[in-house]
Write a structure and sequence with these properties.
The chain is an alpha+beta fold. It has one domain. The chain has two helices and two strands, in the order αβαβ. A two-stranded antiparallel ribbon has the order 1-2. It starts with 5 loop residues before the first helix and ends with a strand.
């Protein structure tokens, strides 16, 4: 799943009733430093 976008992962899991969070998680500065556009957790 390394190449999948976090929002796509979130939508796929939601179809099976699994709730996760995808996005910046209030950590935009950290994510910019890590060169990551978004994450799924």
């Amino acid at each position: 799943m390394d190449s999948a976008h976090p929002h796509d992962i979130s939508q796929l899991l939601d179809q099976d009733g699994v709730a996760i969070r995808a996005g910046h998680h209030c950590a935009q500065i950290l994510m910019q430093r890590m060169n990551v556009s978004s994450t799924a957790r």
